[in-house]
Amino acid sequence: MRLRLPALLILSALAICCRPDRIDVSGGDKPETFGPGYIFDDTVVPKLSIEVSRDEWGRLLSLFDKDNHTHEYIRCGSATLERDDKVLRSTDAGLRLRGQTSRRRPEDRGGRKHHVHFGLHLRKFSETGNFAGVRRINLKYAKEDPTYVREHFCYDMLMRYGVWTAPRSSWCRLYLKTGDDAPVNYGVYLMTESIDRQYVKNRPQFGGSDGFLWKCAWGANLRDRDAWRYHLDDNSSGDYQYDLKEDDPDAFPAAKEQLKDFIFKLGYLSGTSFFEWIQKVCDVDLLLKMYAANVALGHWDDYWNNMNNYYLYFNTRDPENYRVFMLPYDYDNTLGTSHRCGVQTDSGRHDPYNWGLKECILLPKLLSFHEFRDRYTQYLRDFSATDNPYTGVASSAARIKDWESALRQYVPNDLGEDNFIADAPASWGNHPEYRLLQDSPNNWFRVKAESIAGWISR
Fold first, then answer.
1. Which burial class, exposed, middle or buried, applies to 292 when counting CB atoms under 10 A from its CB (0-12, 13-18, 19+)?
2. 3-class DSSP state for residue 275?
């Protein structure tokens, strides 16, 4: 049908008024067509604004005062992400505190706000809330990382290297408004993809999205099977080695028995029986690849060395017929932020074949087989030259400089905390000499490459 000129003008005007420069996602999932890559895009630094009522903010402070490791959410009036010419908005989101040793009161008794880690759950109090299909985002400030880039560098490198289980990450400028007060500029925060059911669904490589997901914290050595170690995540703050991320409490007994089956067989089986079983239930190649990368990144606060900071995903709910994946997590203490922990005193030079504790039996048992050890060695070789494409001295410095150049103008904040970027490890580390950008004998990437090459040649 041919339209008359007035009708065309009206439609053109409507198109201009309704162009998608503001997208309100509180009413549905339409923006999912952008995909998670639109949110976790490290070429831009979007503005993330969160509004919380005075009463809800006060409730968060009260929750912290009652239990400084609270996992309880408060309700946000709105959360808005602005980038390019798009504005994504979600109402009735949930906000909570995150972290372990980093926990502190988000506002002191004098009314001064502080940097803390947050968890933003866009679907906590809404059935449709999301940012371009992303429902949960972890927000981390640069706690004792003057470079502002360590954790993102690691996740980015893992993805470059083909470790597809790595969560996505990028940065934002965080603004928090409480009640009628003016929005407070918190500066630059790292946004990381929450490891949850949606994370699993976004990765068809798992071969199943209806399995059991466990968060594993300090003490999760995959050896001890004491009953008190297992817990169903219910937002409580107790310390549990294995915390099941599952909404259905009736599923907990089956999930626990499945995990206990894996731990039992991991410890009990040996020789050919273990060799055949572990390849049936685990992507051994992916695991060895991830651990070679962990060594190259200096990730000492991990499963092998500190029984800490990883997830396990079982891709079915069958008690014995499953595939289990170890998921990388929490890479802020890396790239030269070294510490006396486990068996390590220098994460830059430590033996990659004895990276951690013997009681963390998964990796030592794998490397006791020549085939697995040889495969692991081949992956280590990828990081043994100072000009390798993943952690090479020059290529790594170039990426870091680009990121820091984009972030630097946004780092100053209203809190007066973490207000600068500097090439140094955390102040509490035991090797303060490491640097990421200086091409010197203390360059972290140079030390690590030469160390790996030396261990391989022994």
1. buried
2. helix
Q: How far apart are CA 165 and CA 191, in angstroms?
A: 17
Separation CA 299–CA 341 (nearest Å): 11
Structure tokens at 141: 């400030």
The position carrying tokens 């500190």 is 306
pTM for the model: 0.92
Higher pLDDT, 140 or 28: 140
**CA 9 to the chain's CA centroid:** 49
Alpha-carbon distance of 131 to 83, in angstroms, equals 12
Helices 370-381 and 444-456 pack at an angle, to 10 degrees, of 150
Write out the two tokens for 58.
């006060």
Tell me the angle at which helices 150-160 and 393-407 cross, rounded to the nearest 10 degrees: 130
Element (H, E) at 396: helix 393-407
Residue 309 near residue 330 (C-beta atoms within 8 A): yes
3-class DSSP state for residue 79? strand
The answer to whether 94 and 75 are in contact (CB under 8 A) is yes
Q: Exposed, middle or buried by CB within 10 Å (0-12, 13-18, 19+), for 142?
A: buried
Confidence band, pLDDT 50/70/90 cuts, at residue 225: confident
Kindly tell me if the per-residue pLDDT of 22 is higher than 50.
Answer: no
- On the question of pLDDT at 58 being above 80, the answer is yes
Rounded Cα distance between 358 and 343, Å, is 9
> Which residue is listed with tokens 């790292």?
190
The pLDDT value recorded for residue 102 is 84
Closest CA relative to residue 335, chosen from 430, 425, 452: 425
pLDDT of residue 235: 74
